[in-house]
Amino acid sequence: MSRLLAAFLTCVASAILATGAAFGIVAALNVTPEPQNVPLVSFPDPPANGASSTPSPSAG
């Protein structure tokens, strides 16, 4: 009977420890600030009037 009780208490203790570790990890991840979302590549804004600086080929 004592071995059964020891096995049960070991299972309960390990479940409590695993749950506490999981909550601790989640709490630690929530405390750290997220990095800024900085794009690796940026493109210049197109001109406001929609005209291109290079002439387009004429049809014809």
Structural overview:
- The protein has 60 residues and is mainly α.
- The chain contains one helix and no strands.
- The chain starts with a helix and ends in a 29-residue tail after the last helix.
- 0% of the residues are buried.
- The mean pLDDT is 84.
Briefly, what is this?
Residues 1-18 form the signal peptide. The protein is built from 1 helix and no strands.
Question: What low-confidence regions span 5 or more consecutive residues with pLDDT below 50?
Answer: none
Summarize model confidence as the mean pLDDT.
84
From N to C, what is the helix and strand string? Answer: H
The total strand number stands at 0
Helicity range: 40-55%
Query: Count of helices?
Result: 1
What structural category do the secondary elements indicate? Answer: mainly alpha
| Rg value | 31 Å
Distance between the termini: 98 Å
List descriptors.
1 helix, 50% helix, 60 residues, mainly alpha
Topology, pairings included?
Layout: H1 2-31
